[in-house]
Amino acid sequence: MNEELIRQSEALAPQLDSSRKKAFVCGLLFAALTVVGYFIDHGQFFQSYLLAFIYWMSLSLGCLLLLMIHHLAGGRWGFAIRRILEAGTRTLALMLVLGVPILLGIHELYEWSHEDVVAADEILQKKAVFLNSTSFVIRYFVYFLVWFILAFLLNKWTAAQDATSETSPTRRMQILSGPGTVLFVLVTTFAAIDWIMSLEPHWFSTIYAAIYIIGQLLLTWAFAILVGVRLSRHLPLSALLTNERLRDLGTFMLAFVMLWAYTSFSQFIIIWSGNLPEEITWYYARLQGGWQHVGYLLVAFHFALPLVLLVSSRLKARIPILTAIAAGMMIMRLVDLFWITAPAFDKTGLTLHWMDLVIPIAMGGIWLSVFYGQLKKRSLVPLNDPRFDFAALADEVDAHG
To answer: Is 262 within 8 Å of 311 (Cβ atoms)?
Structure first.
């Protein structure tokens, strides 16, 4: 059975390699425009670059967290998309490198990095122990070290399980994923504070990082659906990613759409009802000057429309509709992050710079090229996992064959 799964996976390698090359060429072309943008407007370059970085970083981290959740909870859905998630975690090395411009552009992005600004601001002086350039850089590498260790061990042990019928590698992945999930949430909370919330250092929210992490998972569900639909047309995943299984992925995406809406509205209503100047100004900047229309767009297309479509089992079972919702959700995740970050730099009103589109596409092309390169390296179905019924899979493969 293993040999057949490997053979079927290798048969898809040329198709995955073609996708990798197309993504790389696209990323390279838009990267050239990105370089031009850097010389035209330094400040805007770093603002747009931060948006692109936190978006694609969200997908890498979402794959890692969802992978650990799968190892903890099990479920057939996890086996169907596990290789997608594992390949996504192996893009972390790329994101470490792509994050270096953020470190180089600290003074362009974060007001707390300027000594004269801190000297004139009593609040920033009290936060200077945490918000300073040196500790920001140190924490950046600490965050990635933790994520690297988790991703490395999970990928190492899943490869070991592929090569043996012993159950110990799977057991190690399960044992790691419990504390690993807790550690991930803790570290990612601090990363969200550093990279995004500190753009406006006077403002704070205790639920902010939770919203960001939920957004990571929502983005990952959408991405897994898009890649899964494509792979479901071919063996061996056609036997796993059936219409019913893809519908289940849509149900998970619906759950996180609702969870994102719940936490986002909770943050809004608590801050608005408190009516404290240091808290309410964050929303005030995003509900005027044209930014309110982006907010309405998020309510309509990040919550209301997906909710209406995904709550229907009949609509959700139609793959073209599910694919369109997932693609729309990936776009709306970028819009949400744009609505969160851009007003921190321009308080005069809504502006959309061409680099806000070009740089995310450039980084996305490079990210996808690495992702597809990693995806083709292993069997598209995990091998020898003791939790999975390979006899039933063999029957399904024969039925689809």
So the answer is: no
Domain segments of the chain as ranges: 20-400
338: its two tokens: 């744009």
Find, among 87, 1, 66, 126, the residue nearest to 393 by Cα.
1
Distance CA 196, CA 219 (A): 17
SS3 per-residue string spanning 115-139: HHHHHCCHHHHHHCCCCCHHHHHHH
Q: What are phi and psi of 377, to 5 degrees?
A: -80, -20
- Report the distance separating Cα 124 and Cα 296, nearest Å: 33
How far is Cα 46 from Cα 101, in angstroms, rounded to an integer?
8
Whole-number CA gyration radius for the chain: 22
Q: CA 268, CA 167: separation in Å to the nearest integer?
A: 47
Please list, in sequence order, all residues whose beta carbon lies within 8 angstroms of the beta carbon of residue 375, skipping any fewer than 6 positions away: 16, 83, 84, 87
Q: Is 61 left (phi over 0), alpha (psi -120 to 50) or beta?
A: alpha
User: pLDDT at position 273, please?
Assistant: 86
Q: Which two tokens stand for residue 177?
A: 């994923």
Give me the residue label for tokens 């690495």.
370
DSSP secondary-structure letter at 237?
Answer: G
Return the closest-CA partner of residue 48 out of 38, 57, 60, 39: 38
- If one compares 372 and 8, the residue with the highest pLDDT of the two is 372
Please give the Cα distance from 53 to 58 (Å, whole number).
Answer: 8
pTM equals 0.96
Task: Determine contact, residues 241/380, Cβ cutoff 8 Å.
Answer: no
**Residue 397's pLDDT band (boundaries 50, 70, 90)?**
low
